[in-house]
Amino acid sequence: PELYYVNGSIPSWRVMLALSLKQVPYKATRLRVMTTPKETKSEEFLAINPRGKTPTFVDTDGTVVIESLAILPYLEQHYTSNNSKPLMPEVTRKQEWTREVIRIAERENPHNIYEPIELLYLPDWKLASARIVEAYHDTLAELGFWEKYAKESLFMSGEEFGLADCAFYPILAYMIHRGLGLKKHGFSALQAYVERCEGLTAVREARPEGWEEPGKSLFAKCERLVDKNAGSEE
Ligand SMILES: N[C@@H](CCC(=O)N[C@@H](CS)C(=O)NCC(=O)O)C(=O)O
C-alpha cells in the first residue's frame, strides 16, 4: 500500500501511527504544502483524491481511502496481523467499544478549539488577538477533560494504545511541539500519558521527521499576550 502524507500534519500522523502499530510495510509519499502550487494540488494527486488532501491511503488492490478517521477503521478491518494487537475492542464488548468510538469523536473538540491559536502565524495576527486568547483559555479547559480520561486508564480508552489514541495523541503531541507545557498547567496525568505513548517504539517511529526538537512556541506567545492583557486590566 501507499500513503500520501504531509509531514507534521495531525491527520497524516494518525494514520502513520496505526500503520506503525500494525507493522504494515508501506510506501510513504510525502507531499509538500509550502510550495506554490502545493503538491497536494497536482493533477496527478487530484486524480487520486479530488479534494487534494492528505492522508490518502491507496491499498494494494487500488482501493483509495481518504479522511484520517475513515482510514483508521479501514486499517483495523483489513490489516489484522499476528504481530500486532487489535486497536479496537470487539463490538460485543459493548462498553469498551462504545468508549473507543466516543473518544474518537471527541478528538474533534481539542482540534477545533485550538485552531485559532495558529492565527499567530499570520503577519496580521494582532487583529485576531482576542480570538487567540479565547482559544488559549478554551484549549486549556478542554484539555481538562482529557486529563480526567488520562487518570481513568493508561490510554485514552483503556489499558492499551488504541484507535482513540491514534486519533487524539497527535493533537496533544502537536500542541506540545508548539510549546504547550503540560506540567505547568497541572496536567500531570496527561504528561504521564505522553511519556507512556513515547515509550512505545511504534509511536516514536511515527513521529514527524525533524520533530526531535520543539518547534516555534505559539503557546509562549499566547501566554505573553494573556499576561499583557492581564497587566492592562489592572
Ligand atoms: N479531515 C481530513 C483533513 C485532511 C487535511 O486537512 N489535510 C491537510 C494537511 S493537515 C492537507 O492535506 N492539506 C493540503 C491542502 O489543503 O492542499 C482528515 O482528517 O484526513
Automatic annotation (TrEMBL):
Signal peptide (UniProt feature, chain positions): none
GST N-terminal domain mapped to chain residues: 1-83
Limits of the GST C-terminal domain: 95-218
A Pfam family matched in the record: GST_C_2
Segments passing through the bilayer: none
Matching InterPro entries: Glutathione-S-Trfase_C-like, Glutathione-S-Trfase_C_sf, Glutathione_S-Trfase, Glutathione_S-Trfase_N, Thioredoxin-like_sf
Family, similarity comment: Belongs to the GST superfamily.
PANTHER family associated with the record: GLUTATHIONE S-TRANSFERASE GSTA (PTHR44051:SF8), GLUTATHIONE S-TRANSFERASE-RELATED (PTHR44051)
The protein's name in its UniProt record: Thioredoxin-like protein
Taxonomic source organism: Hyaloscypha variabilis (strain UAMH 11265 / GT02V1 / F)
